[in-house]
Amino acid sequence: MAANTITCVNPKLQQLQARAEACTGDTGHGAIWLLEPSAAGKSLFGPMPLVLDLVPALERLLTPSDSEVASITFCPPPLLGALSPGKLVTLTLQVSRGFELDKFPIFPRWTAINTPYGAEGLPNPLGTVQTQAIDVAPVDGSLVARRRTKTRRVEHRTYMDVFYSYFARLSGELSVGFLAEPFAHVDILVGGRTVESTDTHRKSDYLAAFSTTLRLRKTTTYQAVYRSTPAVLPESECLPALPLGGGAMRCGTIMGNGFTITTEQETVRRPKLTHKRINRVKH
């Protein structure tokens, strides 16, 4: 597995225009991103363009509105030879703060149109498959921290010893938008370090919860981090079904996006008293 940073390059460069035209059939594009996976300081496949365009939504049949959507076309090398240092199996594109759209569905669907190469190294349009990812937002997580005290009494003839043990009772709830399971992994952080890990359990269709108890040795500030990895939504369908030839494009995998939610800090204070002796007064 290799990772690298996507760079934005000048879309008017002649070499990139020729590569983009061979991939999309058009020379004019809004932007071109360059992806170049590398491992051990060496390029695996050479630069691979990601071609970006803003197109009317009705033209792409993606949303029933007049808003604009971003089209991203990935242009891999046609064939990777036997001497290639690697093999492209999966590609994950992570983008944050890259798009600003005025109109957006509550649970947007990100559509990918995947056209494979044929045996002769040329695109095979009739083999095109549509895949989608569904945003599970809005997602919100909470954390409540309370101190709990346990006592142990030791009886003596003339006095009684009372020993105090302190614990932090941590609980939280996670609300998840439609089309997502509410289950998530929870890490309890102290000073940015994980001190406890657990999982949520279902409370309702869109609500999950967790609770755990930790020994409180000193005044401590806690945070909870809810994490969920992308998962396949097996009963979902591609909406809308895009046309292909005289019929509809085949629908491939539909994923529910993952998320990471970090709560506000919660502080639990530990009293100084750990032992108290109570004298018995005889009358």
Short description:
This protein is mainly β and 283 residues long.
Task: Provide an overview of this structure.
With 283 residues, the chain is mostly beta strands. The protein has two domains: 7-104, no CATH class; 139-153 and 167-270, Immunoglobulin-like. Helix content is 5%, strand content 47%. The protein has two helices and 23 strands. It has helices at 14-24, 57-60; strands spanning 7-9, 31-35, 38-39, 42-43, 48-56, 68-74, 109-114, 129-134, 139-141, 144-155, 159-176, 185-190, 193-199, 201-204, 207-215, 220-228, 231-232, 243-244, 247-248, 250-256, 259-262, 266-268, 275-279. The strands form six sheets. Strands 9, 10, 11, 14, 15 and 23 form a six-stranded antiparallel sheet that branches. Strand 3 and strand 4 form a beta hairpin. The longest helix has 11 residues, at 14-24. Residues 57-67 have low confidence and may be disordered.
